TrEMBL record, chain A:
Domain ABC transmembrane type-1: 74-280
Identification of the protein by name: ABC transporter permease
Pfam families assigned to the protein according to its UniProt record, in alphabetical order: BPD_transp_1
PANTHER family with a match to the protein in the record: INNER MEMBRANE ABC TRANSPORTER PERMEASE PROTEIN YDCU-RELATED, INNER MEMBRANE ABC TRANSPORTER PERMEASE PROTEIN YDCU-RELATED-RELATED
Recorded topology in the membrane: Multi-pass membrane protein
Gene Ontology CC annotation, any one: plasma membrane
Compartments, as annotated in UniProt: Cell membrane
Record-linked PROSITE patterns: ABC_TM1 (PS50928)
TrEMBL record, chain B:
GO molecular function, one term: transmembrane transporter activity
Domain of life: Bacteria
Key words of the record: ATP-binding, Nucleotide-binding, Transport
Keyword check for ATP-binding: yes
A GO term from the CC aspect: ATP-binding cassette (ABC) transporter complex
One GO BP: quaternary ammonium group transport
PANTHER family in UniProt: SPERMIDINE/PUTRESCINE IMPORT ATP-BINDING PROTEIN POTA, SPERMIDINE_PUTRESCINE IMPORT ATP-BINDING PROTEIN POTA
Protein name: ABC transporter ATP-binding protein
InterPro entries: AAA+_ATPase, ABC_SmlMolc_Importer, ABC_transporter-like_ATP-bd, ABC_transporter-like_CS, Mo/tungstate-bd_C_term_dom, P-loop_NTPase, Transp-assoc_OB_typ2
Keyword Nucleotide-binding: yes
Annotated ranges, domain ABC transporter: 5-235
Organism: Paracoccus siganidrum
TrEMBL record, chain C:
Subcellular localization: Cell membrane
Domain ABC transmembrane type-1: start-end pairs: 67-254
Species lineage: Bacteria, Pseudomonadati, Pseudomonadota, Alphaproteobacteria, Rhodobacterales
One Pfam family in the UniProt entry: BPD_transp_1
GO process annotations (BP): transmembrane transport
Principal location: membrane
Membrane topology recorded in Swiss-Prot or TrEMBL: Multi-pass membrane protein
Name this polypeptide is given: ABC transporter permease
Regions that span the bilayer: 12-35, 67-92, 104-126, 132-155, 183-204, 238-257
CDD domains: TM_PBP2
Organism domain of life: Bacteria
Keywords: Cell membrane, Membrane, Transmembrane, Transmembrane helix, Transport
Keyword GTP-binding: no
SUPFAM superfamilies in the cross-refs: MetI-like
Amino acid sequence: MRELFQRFGGWLASFFLILVAIWLVGMVLAPNLMTLDYALRPNLPPARIGGPEDSYSLANFAYLANEAVHRTIFFKTVWASALVTLTTFVVCYPIAFWMAQRATRAQLSIALMALIVPFFVNEVLRTLGWYIILAYRGPLNAVLLGLGIIERPVRWQGDLGVLAGMVYAYILFMLLPIYNAIESLEKAQIEAARDLGAPVWRIHWRVVIPHAKAGIATGCVFTFMLAAGSYVAPALLGSPGSRWFTEIIYNWFFEGGDWNRGAAYALVLLALCLLVVLVTLRIFRVNLADVAK
Amino acid sequence: MSHSVELSGIGMSFGTTRAVSDVSFKVEAGEFFSILGPSGCGKTTILRMIAGFIQPTEGRVLIGGRDMKGLGPNQRPTAMIFQSLALFPLMPVWENIAFGLEARGISRAERRRKADELLKLIALEGYGERMPGELSGGQRQRVAIARALAVEPGVLLLDEPLSALDLKLRQHMRAELRALQRRTGVTFIYITHDQSEALAMSDRVAVMSAGLLQQVATPRQLYDDPATPFVARFVGETNAIPGRITAIDGGTATLETGLGALRGRAGPGAQVGGQATLYVRPEALIPGTDDANNLPATIDRVDFEGAFALVHGRFDDGAALAASVPSTRLADAPEPGARASFSFQPRHGVVLADA
Amino acid sequence: MSGADRIFRALFVFYLAGFAFYLFAPLVIMSAASFNESRFPTVIPWQGTTLDWFRAMWADRAMWEALWTSAVVAFFVVVISIPAGTAAALVLTTLHARARSFAYALMVSPLLTPGVVIGIATLILWRQVGVGGGLLLIVIAQASFIICYVMLMVVARLQRFDRTQEEAALGLGASRFMVFRRVLLPFLRPALLASAGLAVLQSFENYNTTLFVRGFETPLTVFIATKVRTGLTPAVNALALIMIAVTVIGAVAYELARRRRLRDNRAADLPH
Ligand SMILES: Nc1ncnc2c1ncn2[C@@H]1O[C@H](COP(=O)(O)OP(=O)(O)OP(=O)(O)O)[C@@H](O)[C@H]1O
Ligand SMILES: [Mg+2]
């Protein structure tokens, strides 16, 4: 703090500090604390707010625990997000490895461009693309019918659609960190392992993956967080049977009209994400500074 | 307008590291003053205290007789040239040079004029629009100097500005710096760990070791009359023969050594009965024996260098021998392992108490 | 090359092609659908090529309003997040080790918070002072996490800054403010421009957070999502195609500029 003042002088330093304080306190901490406050109070009509019933309790959280449908949707969101994360990882890892270790300079440059361009396109639009492809009378069904692979059109919308759309949406978040991590692995290490006669899978398992663990952790953390908090893909590509936890939260706010319960649900989602972040960082023994790059 | 700089009892601690302790000296206005010492001895720290980038933990800095306490670097009549030069890479050369003038609110036209003037002074006319990245090392060096001179500082602080240059350019720049200092009359405080640089350029030199001031003197005095064992060893080559002082008589000390009794001038701190060392320069050693001060030795190697030959070997007490002998006085190159004897005048030896 | 290797390689090329197809098929199909006469956006069956949907889109007042709303939001998000993100980066880099890692965790936490939660929390806080969803809250909610991106980009750039430049400027008599304006700020400029671009993109593309704080406003993403659910016609695809074209051109230009800058920087950086 003293260094800040020494370096920038009183006016600038104060200005910077005020900006940062407004951001961290006013835009990060206060909203979350207020949400917690909301989550702990009952939903009351304005007249009775501050009255005797307006006391702290865990009722809103208990509601989630006891409401079977919501609870199921919550756990489904968790495992589905985990599945999205795993699938994205499996899809991305070979590409990341190829880009980092095998691709020529020109190939790499094209590959990066090809990856970054779709990422720059709006998530809603990307999802819209899948919406069209997966439509009941859409091109995917048409092609599969034409090839005789299926007899009748398939309703892709639902779990499968959501999975396809989400994996697609978060590829880059998984790919880039892993690519960066593998890139710093010396080719000689892989060659040395190969010289020792290690089979391919073993080289990856024992050499590449341990080296890239920070990147993998980062990719997984972000993908999980984005998937669990996703709203677009389930809303557009899902079916009534594949509701996502975020949709329930949305309903509490804009249809159920119970913000307090919605706040509690949102906090549960937040807690889930933070838990996943912490556990992943712990498992991979990575620290936060390596994650946010 | 040049200023004097006086340090009185300054010290600097970084946490538990003691970078500088109790250093006092005064640099006269218009003097070319060097600070010489090995890496990490606190030279840069002293300079940064003078410039005001750091505040000494104890002691005072006076510039032009005025106490600088509490004044920031932008309020002091000093300009500094950094070890890394620290040119502004995104400004053209002329804006670099005129930066200090801009800070003083001088109009653009006037700044440009002054910058051109200085470019001429450093022989870089027409380079004003270049970016620093497009200059050679020596040219950058000169731009850094011009940038510092532009603000007409009372004191110019130079932190090993030539260390990044190759030998040839370094020698050239030395001469230029010295000439520039004469011409401008600005007080120069010049840091270096290269002793020949310090000796060649300076009016006076301060020698430092491990945060402590060892001696402040003219180059000649430093060489001839080192005040401490450190200075004797650090500045120039020397032969060091340890012993114990048995007598001091009219400024001449007698030292009982492994080579017998030797006589030399008594340096500061020399006391009868104390452990001391006799220091003799290689060029003060004369081959052959004399009435006194004879140093028997065994020769390892002779490096013939034209006018002089450097003789390396060991004195009989085990101390290293280095003698610089005019080639004419060296009959035949002695074989390695040959016996030889050297003598020296007592006034060419100095006896300093061991630290 | 052994036979197994060859098979492996062929498989991989196949995989690569599949990946590229996966990456681009949705964009291509979506774009193509905007030229199909069919009322519902699709490419099968192809009922004839037309530009009608572009005309329809062009004539759609609501679309223009949504675009305008998004532009206004993006503008203010940039105005807020560039100074705040820069300030955060500078504060962060002057902190000492322990305080720094704490501050860092706090500063990146919005990136690890689901977008919906950010929207909800902002909505709830501002309800306390009687402000409901609308432009103001959209800007605030978006800025609260976009600042993180700016902060990270500025921090990355700061790591390459040579602090002695600041000292040199001070030593030449510059005020702290002038040092900031003339030395540090020009150095940060490329990072600031890049993060402004990123902020605009993030703001335009944001849906999750915006959805909760939008009140009665309809930014572009919300407009599109609503259309998809209530009355999807290829006019939406026409809009999508244009947006894709703009972002692709922007992305390519950005990438090229970044590469050129990398080269320039290498030339301008003084060797030490
Ligand atoms: N900011 C600092 N924090 C902690 N220790 C420091 C700092 N600056 C210098 N030191 C320490 O103070 C001592 C003196 O450093 P200084 O930079 O003055 O040396 P120097 O004589 O200029 O060396 P060189 O010739 O290598 O430049 C060193 O031991 C150094 O590690
Ligand atoms: Mg130094």
